Each structure stands twice: as C-alpha cells, then as structure tokens.
Batch of 2 targets.
Target 1
Amino acid sequence: MFKKRKVDLIGSRSYEFFMLLPFFIGFLTFTIYPIFWALRWVLYDYSGFNKPFFVGLDNFARAFFRDKEFWNSMVNTFYLAFMKLIIEIPLALLLAFFVNNKVRGSSVFRIIYFLPTVFSMAVIGLIFTILFSVYNGIVNSALVGLGILEQNFNFFGGRWPAINVILLVSIWSTLGINMIYFLMGLQNVPNELYECATLDGASGPRQFFSITIPLLAPVMQMVIMLSVLGTMRINDVVLVMTNGQPGGTTEVAMTHILKMFFNFGAVGMRRQYGYGSALAIIMGVILAIMTVLYLKMSKRMKNVY
C-alpha cells in the first residue's frame, strides 16, 4: 500500500509538471528569449539588413544625451501615469462604494462599469477617435450645440489636448476592473466593525479613514501598482488614436521604442534594432526601480496600518 501511494504521488507531480509546461515554454519564448536577444544587440548599430557595427555604449549615450524625442515620450508617459493615479483610483473607490450598497439596480451598474474592460484597446481607441473627430465627431457637435464652443475644436491638433483625450480613454477602459478590485475588498470588511464604531459615536468620515482605508490597504496597493505599471507600458491606444502625432509630440515610451523596431513605413526612417534594444533595457530598468521603490513604500504603509 505504501509503494502504491508513492507511485501515485510521483504521477501527480508529473501531471503538475505537464500542466505547467505550456506556460513555461511561453515564458521562455516570449519573455526570456527577447531579453537575451535585446542584450545581444544593445552594443551594436544594427537594422536587420546591414552588417552589425559595434558602437559600444554609444546607444546609451544617444538615449540619455541626444534623443529628445525619447525623453519627451517619457514626460507624456509619467503624466498619464500620475493623472490616472489621482483621478482613476478615487473614482474607482467611489463607484465601488456605490455598487456595494444594497440599492436597486446596483448589479446593472456593476455590469455597465465593467463592460469597457472586455473590449479591445484598439477598438476603444478607434471609437473615441471617431467621437472626438474635428469634422463629424459627436463630442464637437454636442459642445457646439450647447454653446460651449463656437466652432469645432481639433482635439488631436495639439499635444496636450490629444494627451488628455488619451488619458480619458485610458481611465474609461480600466476603471471597471479597478472598481471590481475595490468592491471585493469592501465586501470582505466585517459589518460588525462599522456597527461598533457607530455605537462609539464615530462619524462616517471617521469610519472611512479609521476602518475602511486600513482594511483596503492591501487592495489599494495592488491597484496602484497595476495602474502605474500598466500605464508605463501603454502603447496600443496611442498608436490607434494619434500614432504620435502631431509631430511626434504624443508619443509615449513604448510607442517610441516600438518604432525603433518597426518603422511602419515612415519615409527616411530605418529600423534600429540596436538602439531600440538599448531603449528597451533602459525602460526595463526604470520599471524595475519603480517596482522596488513601490514595494518598499508598501512595506512602510503596512507597518503604519
């Protein structure tokens, strides 16, 4: 009986290994291999067609001292990440409070808020591009009809109007999933704590800051991390809505890096695998530093609460 149980245990472990094998192969193929591929060409000037030419650290020097477009894209990226943080997180928490209350129709609103999450970002970007179109866009028509604007406004004709439209789309597309995270956290807070606080004379705001926020801290830490890192890697909605226009002023870090590998048929621009690899390494280091700093801050917040 002991031997049979031992064989079953070995068979169970083999089954678990084969279950994990497809994910392991995908991780090696789409994560580990691209990292080593980028490290291979990071010290070369290579377009995929010419003979690789060793340039040493010149790719990094170009990124830090000569590529103004890259740092412009970094400014746009950090702006989107910061604005999403201060707008989306409180709004998602507010919506979670609303749908968590046992009011009539809360389940319907929960579905409505979550729906944008299931749509492709490319489709969402295309829809909002049409909505904010300067010629026949619904937004322009509504603003002119209400008398807010005297004539149609080109939302994609300037850097900051276009960036703010991208910000609006990004918030709209991920607000629902963050609301669900907060909702799950709120549903795990015992009602007895609020009842005891009410008997002790604690007001609603006092209960919110003394009970709700501390118990939601782990969920909030996760939501903040996912929001910031997700925004730092944003690219698809920018490519669909502006493709970096006008004049490359709405590029974000990932679209700028992507265009080093795929020039999208741009006239006079060639692929730059070596320089693109250097930018990818720099971006990876920035994300790693941000993650480490955030984890340290999270530990301090955990000790406070």
Target 2
Amino acid sequence: METKPIQVSFSGQDLRRLIIPLVIEQLLAITVGLLDSVMVSQVGEAAISAVSLVDTVNVLLVNAFSALATGGAVITGQYLGRREREKAGHSGEQLLLFMMEASLFIMALFYLGKGFVLNVVFGKVDASVAAYANTYYMIVEASTPFLAVYSAGAALFRVMGNSQISMWVSLAMNVINGAGNALLIFGFHMGVEGVAIPTLLSRLFAAAAMLWLLRRPGLPLQVEKLSLRHDRYIVKNILRFGVTNGLESSMFQLGKILLLSTVSVLGTASVAANAIGNTFATFQCVAGNALGLGIVTVVSQCVGAGDFDKARFYTKKLLKMTYICMDICILLVYLSMPLLLRLYNVSSEAELYARQIVWMHGFFGMLIWPLSFTLPQALRAAGDTKFTMVVSSVSMWTMRVGFGILLGRYLGFGVRGIWMAMFVDWLLRVSFFLPRFCGRRWETMGL
C-alpha cells in the first residue's frame, strides 16, 4: 500500500520570517566587511596589503565552511520533513562533530604550511608586508574551528526555518569584531593585531553562542550532547551532500583568485574597475543569495516528507521572489551608482569600465542569475549535489576561467571580456540545471 507523504506547508508569513533575516544577514556581512577595510586602512598601506593577502585565503575558508555546513544540514532538514526529530538532532550532532574535526585538521595544515602560503602563494612582497601578514595569519587561523562550528550552527538553525537566530548571532559577532577593531586600532594604536584579535574573539563568541542556543528546549531539533562517536550512515551522507557542496564552493573561489592574476596584467584601470564591479555586483545579488539559502530549508523539508510536488511549487514560488527582489536590488544599485562612483578616486578609464561592468552584470542578473544560482539550491537540498558540483565546476573552469582568459587577454576585450565570459558561464549552467529540475532524477537523490 502506498504511503501518503507527510504534509509540509510554508505560509507567506513563514517564508517572510525565513527570508528577511537572511537578507539582513547578507547585507550585514557586506557592510561590516567594508567598514573593517576602512579601519584597517588607518594602520597603513603595508597592513592593508597584508590583511588583504591573508584574507584571500580566509575568504576561501569562510565560503567552504558555509557550503559544507549547508550541504551537511540538508540531511537534518530532510529528517525534519519526515518528522523524525531525534534523528534530526542526532544528525545535527554529527554535523557539528564532523565540522570540528575537519576544521582542526585544516587549521593544523595551515599552520604547518604557513611558509608555503606566505612565501610561495603570496610571492615576493615587501618585508613590512610579510611581517604583518605573518602576525595576522598566526592569530586569525586560530579561529578556524570556531568559524566551522558557527557555520554549522547557523546552517542547522536555517534548516529549522529559524534564520533569526543566525542573523542575531551574526550581528553580535560583527559588532564585537567592529568594536574590537575600533578600540584596538584607534584606542590602543595597535597594528594588524588590532584587526586579528577581534576576529578571533568574535568567532569564539559566535561558536559558543551557537552551541548554547542549540541546547535550548522547544526547538524542532535539539543538540543534547556532543558525542565523539561517529555514526557511519550520517557521516557518509555528510560527505555525500556536504563535501561536494564545499568542494564546489572552494573551486569557485579558486577560479576567482586565478582570474585576479589575469586582471592584474591588464593594467591599473582594469584592476580598479574589477574591484568596484565586484563590490557593486555583491549588492546586486544580496537578495538572490539569501533566497537561495531559504530554498535549502524549504525544499529539504519537502523532500524529507516525500512531497516533491510541494518541493517544485515552493521552488518556483521562491524563484519568482528572487527575480522580483533581485530586480529591486539591481535597480537601486543602478540609481545609486553615479553617487557611489564619486567615492572612488579612480581614473575616468577605470570609472568607464566599472560602469559598463555593473550595467552588464545587472542586465544578465535580471535575466538568468536566479536560474544559474538559486535554482540549483533546490537540487542540492534534494541531495543532487554531485550533479550540481560537476556542472558548476566544469562550467566555471571552461567558461569563466578558460574563455575569460581568451577574451580578456588574447582577443582584446580586456576586463570586460572576463565579465562577458562569466555571463556565458551562467547560460551554460542554466542549460543543465533547468532540464534537470524539470525532470525526475533529482527526486531519487535523498536519504
């Protein structure tokens, strides 16, 4: 006898309660990051260079941990959809244990490979920059396990549909970081230590807050204890869902870092325009990224309940919301661009390139960005992570990197050619993700 799927329903109010804090959290991270860079600039050019160099590696870690935790939390979301609270809590415990162990291993590798990172990856830099980088690196990398635990906790609260918790913890973490930077830099006149120590302390606070909050009674899932015993079945699925998601995010960031070296040979105006374009593009995609995280929560629970019709319904509904919200964000960026560009002291050539990049990114963002990046989040939430990883990675390295280098360096399109190749990358993704979602194969990839 065929069993009826468990009923999973998200009202409009439920979706707003989930999405709005996610948008605020995304905006908060971007804004605080900009404020941090302004405060770091007070230490001096060598300090700015050192922090930016080390942060190119740290951004890779932040995104990898976030993707790994989000992918691993899909298991918890599917258990919640089945109404199996004990298994959901157990999978949450296993995710936290896995993230702790993985982050300790990564931290050890980073310390053992410090010489390689500082001397080989960063290349030959001034002695003052190298000294600052070493100091910043030694302090900030100690926060790696705390960052991993925070990422896991935030992902678990999101799959519960409680994104307000991750928003408030993120707010507190960023306030501690920003206030600490201001106090140590302006009050105690410290160098890069004044930037690094608050980062370490803020991440320690965020990890401790998440572990405490996950123990509160009345949650859809509760992490009662942190057992050191591994559940092979859960760990296997964390590896299957989470690691593929983390690898995909890591390769995406590595591709971006590689393209920076290509941009650097195109001249100062191109480097400046690329940096400005990236900042503006981030604001254009704020709502899209937040809604993508929301889709993981909603679809994972629908898939866990066996209700694939609802999974499709909510994916389409959230895609429509993504298009509307992204259109608003892009139009706001367009309207504010003339004013914001005046804040950058760049040449007219760099300003022209930046303006063209932002207009192109916004145009294609309105057309295909949600289908390229929000839609595959539904596939990941259903457990179809291997397919999304393969498509995203191949498309990234062939179109965005390979075709981008061809257009930018060899066919004379410059920095604009690199961004054009990115839009071709988006189109290729859509050509695979849309038919996959319209088919049935992804419905067989869950637990």
